[in-house]
Design a protein that fits this description.
Blueprint (H helix, E strand, L loop, with lengths): L2 H14 L7 E6 L4 H13 L7 E9 L8 H9 L4 E5 L2 H18 L2 E2 L3 E2 L17 E3 L5 E3 L3 H24 L4 E3 L4 H15 L8 E4 L4 E4 L7 H11 L15 H15 L3 H11 L15
Parallel strand pairs: 1-2, 1-8, 2-3, 8-10
Antiparallel strand pairs: 4-5, 6-7, 9-10
Helix pairs in contact: 1-2, 4-5, 6-8, 6-9
């Protein structure tokens, strides 16, 4: 994907949903992955010619998992004179403690996490509710739960803690907005998860005002697909860090991603049609649209 095309998609989203105003100071959430680095690259380039002047600060919330070497990202930001803040947290420890408590509760209920109950019957790592509670280890020796309700709860808690830390860091840096690198695929996956598991039609809105903190979240990548971002990364070789999360790739969202990929192979274009449906549904916070242009 060419840089100018990425600029075009991002500017279209910003204009359609009035994401940036003159004088904004935007904290760009940097996970270390290709999506967030591409967003920082796009906004840094866009600010040179966008009619509304704005400032950028890159922020990474360090969850505490290792390895997680951010040196190259720091150098990249310094070369472009982008302030970069790394926020150390104990989130990994909090999640590990919660997992240990869950394992003890399962054991107290007469379930052996190795896959047998107290009667010596093989239960294949499932509890009486049919949920997967087995635990393995990855190559780094970390406990890795298989896909289960417990891992989804941990992901939800992690997201809340991570967003809280990012919001606090953004406020301390004098930012009034936070930019997330959620792309079109993320929007569609979220809509499917809401339909399948909550019985409602919802997806991340382009702009969200956080009344409690006074910050506003923007998502300038809503017109960009993950495939396009992968192509952009392959072409421009931005510095990225492998996700050290021990449950990366085995979450409910990962399952939905795989399902959506299969559906899109069998019915080409289905992802963009679902995204079109999201826009046409006039969901909350999706209605303040300037141009309603089509990506």
């Amino acid at each position: 994907m060419e840089l100018q095309r990425l600029y075009s998609y991002v500017r279209q989203a910003i204009d359609d949903y009035q994401m940036i105003c003159p004088g904004d100071h935007i904290a760009v959430g940097i996970s270390g992955g290709k999506d967030s680095m591409a967003l920082l690259c796009a906004l840094q380039g866009l600010r040179r010619f966008y009619p509304a002047p704005f400032e950028l600060t890159a922020v990474t919330v360090d969850l505490g998992y290792r390895p997680f070497d951010l040196t190259e990202i720091g150098v990249w930001c310094k070369e472009r004179q982008i302030p970069y803040r790394i926020v150390p947290t104990e989130i990994a420890g909090i999640l590990a403690a919660r997992q240990d408590v869950s394992a003890r509760e399962n054991a107290a209920a007469g379930q052996d996490v190795a896959g047998r109950n107290t009667a010596g019957q093989d239960v294949a790592g499932r509890n009486t509710a049919g949920q997967d509670v087995s635990v393995g280890r990855n190559t780094a020796g970390q406990n890795v739960p298989t896909r289960s309700e417990g891992s989804d709860i941990s992901c939800s808690l992690c997201a809340r803690l991570r967003k809280g830390a990012l919001g606090q860091a953004a406020a301390e840096a004098g930012c009034n907005k936070i930019a997330y690198a959620h792309h079109m695929d993320d929007m569609v996956e979220t809509a499917l998860m809401s339909l399948f598991f909550e019985g409602r039609f919802y997806s991340f809105p382009p702009v969200t005002a956080l009344e409690r903190t006074g910050l506003t979240v923007i998502r300038p990548f809503l017109y960009v697909t993950e495939a396009e971002l992968l192509g952009f990364q392959n072409k421009h070789k931005l510095p990225v860090v492998t996700n050290p999360c021990p449950v990366d790739g085995i979450t409910r969202r990962a399952e939905i991603k795989q399902l959506l990929a299969r559906l899109n192979r069998e019915y080409p274009g289905i992802k963009k049609r679902i995204f079109h449906a999201i826009r046409e549904a006039r969901l909350p916070d999706w209605t303040a649209v300037a141009g309603q242009s089509q990506p």
